[in-house]
Amino acid sequence: MVNKFESTYSLLNIPVPVRQRTGRSIENIAAVRASVQNEPNQSIPRRSQELGICQTTLWRILLKDLHLHPYKIKLTQELKPLDHLQRRNFSDFVLQKFEENPEFHKKIIFSDEAHFWLNGFVNKQNMRYWTATNPHVLHETPLHPQKVSVWCGFHAGGVIGSYFFVDENNRHVTVNGVRYRAMLEEYFWPELDGFDISDMWFQQNGATNHTAGQTIDLLKAKFGNRLISRNGPVEWPPRSCD
């Protein structure tokens, strides 16, 4: 009571004034909620301008009052009209194989190539120089950067590879039909010597160097009809994630 009297000069319970929120008012919260429902992917600056609410207050309303989170979109491969049917057919094929053998997926050798740039990659969105004046830092990149193409296969038993595509002078080269078939015969076939491939399947994507007539014939001679590939006995769906 002594402390109360010294601070307020009264023994009565005087209510403490509450600061009124002008920015995060009920009206502004309702306006932001309606705006988000109508256009959820609008930018903060544009929404702030349209609603007449400063960006800091808008952020607080979105996060603290509406409990929303700014999720990023994900990019995915565009599908053409006929792709859906082909994907469905392939799914039916896989389900049928699983009914015949629950461990069908362990009988597939999946394969793919990847390209690695040798000059390094700089993401300018993540690179910052903290300094009092602009140093005008430049990072030079070649017009046609050198890259290396690597192939590998993987299955339930492990990884086959990696195989680097190089020419007779050990220089990195791009992949074409001739080099891909040379890789199959000179590298992949010997790697399979220790495997029983009588019931193994081979999968590859629809790259042109994979689906040339000579390449398909070469693979069918090795795997028979157990080939999952565009232009093969079992069609690999186009625009599928490898």
Q: How would you summarize the topology of this molecule?
A:
Elements: H1 2-8, H2 26-38, H3 44-51, H4 55-65, H5 83-100, E1 108-117, E2 147-155, E3 158-164, H6 177-191, E4 201-203, H7 208-211, H8 213-223, E5 227-228
Parallel strand pairs: 1-4, 4-5
Antiparallel strand pairs: 1-2, 2-3
Helix pairs in contact: 2-4, 6-8
Explain what you see.
The chain has helices spanning 2-8, 26-38, 44-51, 55-65, 83-100, 177-191, 208-211, 213-223, and strands at 108-117, 147-155, 158-164, 201-203, 227-228. By secondary structure, it is of the alpha/beta class. The mean pLDDT is 86. It is built from eight helices and five strands. The protein starts with a helix and ends in a 14-residue tail after the last strand. The protein has a five-stranded mixed sheet with strand order 3-2-1-4-5. Helix 6 (177-191) runs parallel beside helix 8 (213-223). The chain has two domains: 21-65; 81-228, Nucleotidyltransferase, domain 5, CATH 3.30.420.10. This is Transposable element Tc3 transposase. GO terms for molecular function: nucleic acid binding. InterPro entries: RNaseH_sf.
What is the structure about, briefly put?
Helix content is 36%, strand content 13%.
End-to-end distance, in Å?
Answer: 75 Å
CATH superfamily of the largest domain, called what? Ribonuclease H-like superfamily/Ribonuclease H
Which strand order does the major sheet show? 3-2-1-4-5
Q: What order do the helices and strands follow?
A: HHHHHEEEHEHHE
Derived from helix and strand composition plus strand pairing, the structural class reads alpha/beta
Mind summarizing the main beta sheet? 5 strands, mixed
Which spans of ≥5 residues are poorly predicted at pLDDT below 50? none
Reading off the top of the CATH hierarchy, the class of the largest domain is best stated as Alpha Beta
Tally of individual domains:
2
Number of helices: 8
Total beta-strand segments: 5
| CATH topology-level fold name of the largest domain | Nucleotidyltransferase, domain 5
Q: What radius of gyration results from the CA coordinates?
A: 31 Å
SS strand fraction: 5-15%
Query: Mean of the pLDDT scores?
Result: 86
Morphology call: elongated
Could you estimate the helical fraction of the residues in percent?
25-40%
Which CATH architecture of the largest domain would you pick? 2-Layer Sandwich
Organism: Dufourea novaeangliae
Protein name: Transposable element Tc3 transposase
InterPro entries: RNaseH_sf
GO molecular function, one term: nucleic acid binding
